[in-house]
Amino acid sequence: MSLKDIIAPFSVWKRAFEKPYTTKKPLDERPGAARYRGFHINDMNKCIGCGTCEEICQNAAIDLVPVSKTVHGDSGLRPKIDYGRCCWCALCVDICPTSSLGMSNEYIWIDSDPEVFRFIPGHDDKPWNNSELGYRRAEGYDLLEGQRVAMPMLSFEESKKSFVEMVQGYSAEQARLEADRCIACGICVATCPAHMQVPEYIKAIRDDDMGEGLKIVYNANPLPASCGRVCSHACEYVCAVKHKGEALSIRWLKRYIIDQIYLGDYQKVLDEGEPGNGKKIAVIGSGPGGLSAAYYLSLLGYAVTIYDANDKAGGMLRYGIPEYRLPYNQIDKDVDYITSLGVEIIQNTKIGRDIPFSKIYDEFDSVFFSTGLTDPYGLDISGEDLKGVIPGLEMLDEVTKGLVPDIGSSVVVVGGGNVAMDAARTSKRYGAEVTILYRRRKEDMPADEEEIEEAQGEDCILTTQAIPLRLEKGDKTRLKLYWGKAEMVSEGPGKRPKPVLIEGSEELIECDTVITAIGQAADYSFLSEEITAKLSFKRGYVEVNEFYQTADRKIFAGGDIANPKRDAISAIANGHSAAKGIDIYLTNFRKLN
Amino acid sequence: MNIIEDKFSVWQKRFSLSGFENKSSELAFVQVPADQTVAFITTVRDLDGYKHLVFFTAVDLLEDGVFRLTYMLHNYTTKHDLGIQTDISRDSASMESIHHLWPHGATYQRELKEMFGIDFPGSPGVNESFVLEGWFAMPPMRRDFDTKEYSEATFFPRPGRKTFDTQEYMKEQLYPSEAETW
Fold first, then answer.
1. Of A268, A288, A315, which residue is a domain's last?
2. Closest in B169, B174, B175 to A77, CB measured
3. Which of A3, A145, A524, B52 could form a disulfide with B74 if both were Cys (CB 3.0 to 4.6 A apart)?
4. Which domains, from first to last, does chain B contain?
5. DSSP state of A23
6. Average pLDDT over residues B51-62
7. What is the ipTM of this complex?
8. At residue B182, does pLDDT exceed 60?
């Protein structure tokens, strides 16, 4: 043994009074790093229960469980995490479309009961619920694409010159890229009035299987070439991906499927339906509701005859929507497939004028009417009967029929819905200077956002909070429209503020034409008095049950005349439900009584 | 021409090098056929000063049917890193060992055996568990390993677990009886 070996143990004494390298126990405080992946947190108000976290979790550690109320855009489900399986990889945090999920930097949780380690972050009371520190998805890094694939469109300069379709449609590559953005949560399905299987048909695009896509679309919507262009796309307003920026282009993806398949090939793909059952159904009106009912009734084996007052089928799709939004050959594509199944459409025949309602009531086993809202509301101001004041629908109808509308060089459109936008943009295409007057604010306008943007893009001047006061014959122009400014007055929480005229704020616009587009009412004059007495009506709508059956059990009704949603896709859904209702009525008649 | 490019031209006379990438003044990669790799590594270690094995790893190039092995070496004198890459078939993947050059190479090889299923015959303890005690499935770093399927099969769900499908649940809550959805 050397001298060094003897002395060495004593040398450590020189460190006796230095700060120790070890940590004193028990550990009172040892916080996780600022971005530590500790216990989960979830902002209950931001989370929409889309289930993407559950889908991506590679350890199947997440269940979705009911926590809050289900509303459109929020399933009411919330993630419940099993910490027996979680590996804290944070993929759930990284993928979360709303960024509601995160992780605190807490990592100590001691309990003798293993069951408590399954918990609902943000809902269950935990000390780390409001933790500012911990892992969050890093800025500049995203597993989801928030921007939609840009749709090729005509420029506003080009579009306002003609009736060429403005939206040109996706290429195969663009459609697949856009379809890839879908997280298939299915939140949109509840909001679509027809409950179309959106994630499934988007998957068909990803799989490049257009036949499968067409089948899925036709399960709930027999007018997809039209709807793929002009649907009010309520689905897109609740799309989970919208929380990242822009919603999926659901409507245009549907259009992509339909654009890929020739009408002649439909029959190779779609179900032919049941053989004829010998029963006859009359449908009044060939708009979306009537066509939809006819299609599904035909599949159920009924002989369907549609009576329509116009020259061609399609109703408001054809006579209320301009060709630059919905080309007529696309309506033809939808209609032609329905007629190819044996549905007969008798055009230029108005029930109540050419054939009494009672006649078809007696001759057919059941009647479905979907005649829409055809009587425009007036402005209820003086001078309304002057030459140059025309309803928007009348003007759009003339254009569809190939007539040149007599609008002059300056037009004022009164209204904020899609008809108003269509009338304004159509007037622009005939060379008029256009001003749109709307009584409420821009955000209150019932027209689709893109219709408003496109109208403004095409240089239609939008004047909001403007109330028409009176019309007079003009000097240089046909008309003088006096209008006043409105202030928005609160009507209480949850209600739309009401526009109230500001006294003395009168302004004048000189114009050749005033187009009124503030809504329409139903015209029930085609019904016989006896039938009218049997049906019940509420606020202008005919009352129906869940099968769209009226108080007269033989008569069903749908579309705008029975449904306050007043859009094509709701009418299509009504027609579908009514077809099921008629089938129950005719085959289970005794049981129902 | 810098020093590493000079060296490359020398190496190329002795080995069938298939590629060379000079990433920066401190890092270069060279692609070597599998049957010459250990000989090449021995050469650069003993003759060119790349004495330190920084790491040894693999990438699963599933589409090409190969594992790409990367040996990262460091030269303390020139402070230069050299990545030596070689592709081996994914089927019955096997590679010559380097444990005789660096003892800790055996640890990397044990890890690669466990995570990718690449064998290194003769490497000490290569068949012993590295971190996955009791593992019986496909090596988990292979890209055709389905993590979720493995989790579902292996970790039995705790009793009482129940999940709700978003679409079905919203239907039950918001539109349970609409006829068009039958």
1. A268
2. B169
3. B52
4. 3-181 (3.30.460.80)
5. P
6. 97
7. 0.88
8. no
